[in-house]
Design a protein that fits this description.
The complex is a heterodimer of chains A (about 260) and B (about 280). Chain A is α/β, with parallel strands linked by helices and about 260 residues long. Chain A is about 30% helix and about 25% strand. Chain A contains eight helices and nine strands. Chain A has a six-stranded mixed β-sheet with strand order 5-6-7-3-8-9, with helices on both faces. The longest helix of chain A is centred in the last third of the chain and has 18 residues. Chain A is globular. The radius of gyration of chain B is 19 Å and the shape is globular. Helices cover about 80% and strands about 0% of the residues of chain B. The chains are: A alpha/beta (about 260), B mainly alpha (about 280). Chains A and B meet through helix 2 of A and helix 2, helix 8, helix 9 and helix 12 of B.
């Protein structure tokens, strides 16, 4: 596995927006499904330490964009990752928190098993080694969820599950963290806490964040960069710029927002 | 040679103060149960967690076609054609899911309908079908020493393969999206497991029967789910319940003069119902 560049001590203390040493580039990315374009001509830069928010209506291609980044679907154009040494590793470490994550209520699987299934060589049915348990505790500690390690995954609340899945996505520390509508099913104060945690973590570990969400009010405060997607990039810029764009205001009926 | 290998087993079991232990076929059947029940109990945890019960049912039913092909090819034992056909079927179901864009239950239903009818058509030519009905309920007491040796080999192989795919399948059962983002070939692990499952189900068929094999795969794991709160407990309970049902069913079937496979399934069902009590109580 690739050692994450963002983990090197040289990066700590560098202002997030200025890092400029590692980045992810999408150039002319397009996806067609049965001949019809789903995504067209996407040019996107994700910088480490920066939170890029992607907004758009349902069917705008947000999840497809994430799948391109994760390398899950064939696409035209290029996706490149440059690490701090300006090399192009084929597989950057990508942490991923998927959409609509809820687990089978009765699944006989603990949070520790979830980590073991992701990290361990030994099959989880034969028990979990001490080193994997420690790695899981470390990951959960980052999101303040270490107390949940022996809980069954099916009985976690929405907010608890988000912290567990974020902790998992941060183990090992990724180059890019991708979150697909992570906050559906979490109340307002839970969202604010989650975004604050996310901001703290990306500054601390200096990874790039790509976040897809409908939560415009919170994003306005926490995102560095915002992209309005409707099959192609309609407009992008600071959250303030994008949220004042007439096309965005129209799409999200933002008449009340100043 | 295998017989001499098994001599200590026969000597040890015949010391037991039970009537059944005096019979060579029962001692052999016990050994087969001791091997096959943990094997099915272990695989069953993955089948239940990954919702593959319909697939394993289909593999069992497809044995008809495997037998039919063996007959057409003039093979002395249909085992090889059964295994070959089960593997072919596994690949066909995977192909229909991917290329045909079918949901998994539709793909399995489609392929199963075709294979079962093909098998029955071939085997029923000339009104000969009754000859093959013993495959429906199986015959645990017809196990040979060579069968036991094959089974032991298979058990070792399954245990080793768990190191390759168990964790990937577990993650896939929880969240396919996370599994795909963490491993590029999680689909390959699924297909490898399906192939292995097809081989084990087919090998155990002649003893347990086409109609019952799936019950032995699913019941212990379903019962274990009611007792476990993590993966290793789930696995441990499933293997233990499968063991218990297998041994109890074999002994009961001896004294009651009933078909062994079906008796084991009834014991497993009784255990499942007991675990259900404990689940509703908690």
């Amino acid at each position: 596995m690739q050692v994450p560049a963002a983990d090197s001590p040289a990066h700590h203390g560098i202002a997030p927006h200025r890092c400029g040493e590692c980045c992810t580039t999408m150039k002319g990315v397009g996806v067609r499904y049965r001949g019809a374009p789903v995504l067209e001509n996407i040019d996107l830069h994700l910088h480490c330490g920066e939170l890029t928010a992607v907004i758009g209506e349902n069917g705008a291609g947000k999840t497809t964009l994430i799948k391109c980044l994760l390398g899950e679907i064939p696409h035209s154009g290029e996706v490149h990752f440059l690490d701090a040494a300006h090399r192009r590793p084929d597989s950057p470490v990508i942490g991923y928190v998927p959409q609509h994550s809820s687990f089978d209520k009765d699944a006989p699987v603990s949070v520790l098993d979830l980590f073991a299934a992701s990290l361990a060589k030994r099959p989880a049915c034969l028990g979990v080694s001490k080193s994997v348990r420690e790695a899981a505790l470390e990951g959960l500690h980052r999101t303040g969820a270490e107390g949940l390690i022996d809980r069954r995954v099916g009985i976690l609340s929405g907010g608890e599950l988000q912290r567990v899945l974020l902790g998992l996505a941060l183990t090992p520390i990724p180059n890019i963290l991708v979150l697909d509508e992570p906050m559906s099913g979490v109340d307002h104060s839970g969202r604010e806490q989650f975004y604050e945690l996310l901001s703290k973590l990306r500054r601390e570990y200096d990874f790039a964040v790509l976040l897809v969400s409908h939560d415009l009010v919170s994003l306005a405060r926490f995102a560095d960069h915002m992209v309005f997607l409707d099959r192609r990039i309609v407009c992008e810029g600071t959250p303030k710029e994008v949220l004042h764009d007439p096309r965005v205001r129209e799409a999200f009926s933002l008449h009340s927002l100043t | 040679m295998i017989e001499s290998f098994l001599a200590p087993w026969h000597a040890a079991v015949s010391v037991l103060p039970f009537e059944w232990a005096r019979f060579g076929f029962m001692r052999l059947a016990l050994l087969a149960v001791l091997l096959v029940s943990p094997l099915l109990g272990a695989l069953g945890t993955v089948v239940v967690a990954n919702r593959m019960a319909f697939f394993s049912e289909a593999i069992g039913h497809a044995a008809f076609t495997g037998i039919a092909l063996g007959v057409l090819l003039g093979l002395a034992s249909p085992m090889w054609s059964m295994i070959g056909f089960a593997l072919l079927l596994t690949l066909a179901i995977a192909w229909f899911r991917r290329r045909g864009g079918l949901s998994s239950d539709t793909a399995i239903g489609l392929v199963m309908a075709f294979t079962v009818s093909l098998g029955i058509v071939i085997l029923s030519r000339g009104g000969d079908f009754a000859r093959y009905t013993n495959f429906l309920i199986g015959d645990m007491l017809a196990v040979t020493a060579a069968d036991v040796a094959w089974l032991a080999l298979l058990a070792v192989f399954v245990a080793a393969s768990f190191f390759f795919f168990f964790n990937r399948l577990l993650l896939g059962s929880l969240s396919p999206a996370i599994a795909r983002s963490r491993a590029k070939n999680s689909g390959a692990a699924e297909l490898a497991f399906a192939c292995l499952l097809a081989v084990v189900v087919t090998c155990a068929l002649p003893w347990i029967g086409i109609l019952l094999i799936n019950a032995l795969l699913i019941l212990p794991a379903a019962a274990a789910r009611n007792l476990a709160s993590n993966t290793s407990q789930f696995f441990g309970w499933s293997v233990a319940i499968s063991f218990l049902a297998g041994i109890a069913g074999l002994v009961v079937s001896f004294y009651a003069s009933t078909a062994t496979g079906a008796t084991i399934v009834l014991v497993a069902m009784a255990i499942y119902l007991l675990t259900l009590l404990r689940r509703t109580a908690s």
